[in-house]
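Hi,

I'm pasting everything inline rather than attaching a file, because the server keeps stripping attachments. The sequence lines come first, and each chain or strand is labelled.
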Amino acid sequence: MARKNVTQQLAPTDEGFAHAVAILTEGGLVAVPTETVYGLAARADSAEAVAAIYAAKGRPSFNPLIVHVKDLEQAERFAHFDNRARDVARRFWPGPLTLVLPMREEAGLAKAVSAGLATIALRAPAHPVMQHLLERLPFPLAAPSANRSEEVSPTRPEHVIASLEGRCPAVIDGGPTHDGLESTIIALREGGRWNLLRPGPITTKALEEVLGPQTVQEKAKIEAPGQTARHYSPGKPLRRNAQEVAPDEFFIGFGAVRGDCNLSDKGDLARAAANLYECLHQAAASDKPRIAIAPIPDDGIGLAINDRLRRAATAS
Ligand code: TXA
Ligand code: MG
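And the predicted assembly:
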């Protein structure tokens, strides 16, 4: 019997890329490395391909996807950029920043990508494997994180396979991801206003240097619908700000507070971000029924780490 429900691991070689290009062109799914987390990619201009992403993840259809582009020039085909949007894209792309902008009417993207919103989320990723793939494709790639909905995001191909085995034909192996946390998302609004929708590797301080102060949050509607509390679930209760560990807890350490898995012995927040999901995957797989995690300082990328941990703690 053909091994149909197996996710094939592709090396980032000519042969691997050719295979990935063929699957994507036909409207199939390929999991791809980015500098943040692995994404579950499909062509963004095909309704069926995008529907397959939602089905494989078990993702609610009201939660829109990020469209990955080669560069600013390609991005401008899908959204209206004003000068400040161009400035911020030139400063942070390629990189872990997603811009939510008014969509062009003639964008030609599958409706489900934006879940019916008038805006579109765009990002030009910095990972060389993803860049190489986008260079070879005449269409952009819609890609959410390559995990079942609400689970911990993947930072290695093994995490993708553990979560999506059989639901995605292939994953390109790009090794462990560099940033380890999903991109920062901002909405650029009319009249120079802007808001942070999801904290991430690009800090608010760095953004304010280009965009000026963030507008007071317009929080009336849920604007990044994926940012609902139940998310990033390791499937077990998670206790934050723990100084010591109970016998039934898997302990995630930081700095001087040592654990079963350590985010960074030296207390380096960028290292901690890169290791966070790996430690949560290990905690989920361990035989301990609970998880405890040391305090993480709330500055720089620590804000994004604590954002994910709050959600992970609520989810379980
Ligand atoms: O780093 C990342 O951003 C990764 C990699 C694969 O690029 N992707 C990722 O995708 O985290 P996902 O689907 O897990 O998160 C996308 C977020 C969701 O919270 C979604 O609600 C928000 O982007 N989003 C997408 N389109 C939006 C829009 N038009 N307006 C507001 N939020 C939007
Ligand atoms: Mg996700």
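Residues 238-315 form one domain.

If the labels don't parse on your end, tell me and I'll reformat.
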